[in-house]
Amino acid sequence: MRLKYNTKLILWAYIFLFPSLVSLGIVILYPILDAFYISFFRWNLLSFEKSFIGLKNYEGLFQDSIFKKALINTLYFSVISVPVTLFIALIIALMLNSLSTGIKNTLRTIYFIPVITSIVAVSFVWRWMFEPSYGPINHILGFLGIHGIGWLSDTKWALPAIMIVNIWRNIGFYMVIFLASLQMIPKEFLEAALIDGATSYKRFIYVVLPLLNPTVVFCLAISIIDALQIFTQVYVMTSGSGGIVPGGPLYSTTTIALYIYKIAFRDLEMGYATSVAFVLFLLIFIFTLIQIKFTERPFEY
Amino acid sequence: MGYILKVFKIAILSVGILIMLLPFFWMISSSFKPLSEVILIPPTWIPHNPTLGNFIYIFTQMDIFRYLFNSFIVAFISVSSILFTSVLGGYAFAKYNFPGRTVLFYTILSTLMVPFQVRVIPLYMLIFKAKLLDTYFGLALPGLADAFGIFLMRQFMMGIPDDLINAARIDGYSEPAILLRIVLPLSKPAVSTLTIFTFMWNWESFLWPLVVTNSESKYTLPIGLARFAGKYLQRIDLQMAASVVSIIPVLIVFLIFQKHFIEGITLTGMKG
Which residues are listed as membrane-spanning (chain B) (predicted)? Predict the structure, then answer.
């Protein structure tokens, strides 16, 4: 059905939209277009040199070994931390859902606390908890017979250490979303499954999980987009003394977002930095398309 | 069988709680220790020689109230701007039919896919050329508009019955009056969600204040904390005390408004 336009109402719609359009134009649209333009230039802020070089910045990415490292680190980080976070969040939500309201709400609040605490502050706390010799984590692992992990000083363990912090901080957020959608599943569905004699395992696989599907897809999408942009935790946990660029040791924790920061605000190569930023956009774009594809066939209650 | 399962469940949840709280426990414990005890092997869980020295040092050497104030001002500017533009814009998209509506809406929505890293350089150049580095306006600029807010308000307001709005029109309400007196009061849950989210994003914002602030007087809390730790690189005792002080204000706000926080997240989860 196509409604007929009403001139007076159209005018009001544009008046209401005006503040949004102006502010979005300045803060969102203009910078995106300008960034795209800049990405075709060699532009160093120090030398004031700004010359058009076409696709050279993008071509340069293929020869840049640090960029490759950053890309791999970012994907590695996302591929591990996203599923682990969501899996743990789902398990905790399922467990909490079967408890009585009072305990449930108290535990939910406790699990949620890391979500609201300052990323910078908790990153410092974890940084020192991971300290290999006097930090508490290796102390506790010692009781389990695990010794000598160098964590942030070890190229193999530095990124996993940051993953652990990220997982720890985000579990509560996704748990709250899962818990809310679990509480929305109609009781009759579960009862019907009980009457059919479904065991609790089967009930979960065939009744709860399909009903939870849209929520899982939603959480997957936002957590991947979030993970691909990981910056603050890495910056804080790996920054050293005297202006050393974070992301070490030996670029083992350099993510794409961190690399963009390094090129743009330490090397002052604005053109090249924006071309890397567009690669980050491309990654997010691909994951969003996948998500849209999955949600196109929504599950009907 | 059911009993064993229950014990197992409680055991897992307790271990989980322990892991969630351990960093806070260690942070608070270390903040009351002298440095010599923080680096003791094996680590002590309860300070043997508790001291307030770290906190006294923090409050005299670090302008933490200044950073808190700056963070609050920047978040306040951003929240005000985003609430104002999103309520108006979201309402227009939800309840008016006008040429270009679909194209405009999807254009705005698609900008959500573009990461901040793409925009940061042009925005930086803008602030740099306008000589607005190290100002509140410069700090707040990227937070003045956000497609998410428009999307959230639109989704929520679409659920408000058209009949209500048409009835008000017949009663002679002007269009702004309908929004202000009928739609807005019904949209409180979405408004409070947007407030909380925008506030939290601003409060945690790191990259932008990192690049546009040079003087200590304009540091936001995350930047102040990071710079302080950079200056006292090995002073774990001081860093932990500073972390405690910076976590407390938001923790208090959260514990007071936790119902709204959790409902807010649920709302976006459902509307997504």
Answer: 7-28, 67-91, 103-124, 136-157, 178-201, 238-257
